[in-house]
Amino acid sequence: MSKKVSPDLRPVFWENVTLEDMTPPEWEALCDGCGRCCLLKLEDEDSGEILYSNVSCRLFDADTCRCAQYALRKQMVAGCVVLSPENIERIAYWMPETCAYRLLFDGQKLPDWHPLISGDPNSVHRAGISMQGKTVPEYEVDHDDLEDYLIRDF
Q: Which long-range contacts (CB under 8 A, 24 or more apart) does 49-53 make?
């Protein structure tokens, strides 16, 4: 059962409003808090496949699965990509397949474990989707060894 989680959000907006027409609070509410987008990735040069590692951005908080400096992330991490309705078409392919932004962009529905559907922000963790407690911070890894940290069963 879906629940309205904030007075700033229209009921079931993710089913009735295009990504471009969402308000900033609605856009932000799409994030399920899995932390997968904060993982360092490699792109296979031959196939274009995006390969995820379990190495997280230095700003990633492994307990909360959120950015520790969300408002300043772009200034603090030059390679951080701030997803928006304006750039999702270019970026969606490297977002995790479970990502609400990617799912909605691709015309799919949100999964039952998504907090907007379950009404529980911890449902993403219970479903085993989140990276909570599963990452190594990038400052502990030599970037030349990133291939050794690839997630095979993502």
A: 50/93, 50/94, 51/150, 52/96, 52/150, 52/151, 52/154, 53/146, 53/149, 53/150, 53/151
82-92 pLDDT tens trace: 999 999 999 99
Which residue(s) pair with 43 in the sheet? Answer: 50
What CA–CA distance (Å, rounded) separates 38 from 77? Answer: 11
Q: Are strands 39-43 and 50-56 parallel, antiparallel or unpaired?
A: antiparallel
Residue 43: both structure tokens together: 């792109």
Give the residue extent of every domain in the chain.
Answer: 15-149
Query: At 118, phi and psi to the nearest 5?
Result: -75, -25
Which tens digit of pLDDT belongs to each residue from 69-81? 999 999 999 889 8
* pTM (two decimals): 0.90
Cα–Cα distance list, 65 to 19, 90, 98, 132 (Å): 23, 24, 15, 6
Residue for token pair 């890894």: 141
CA 115 vs CA 1, 60, 102, 135: distances in Å: 10, 20, 16, 22
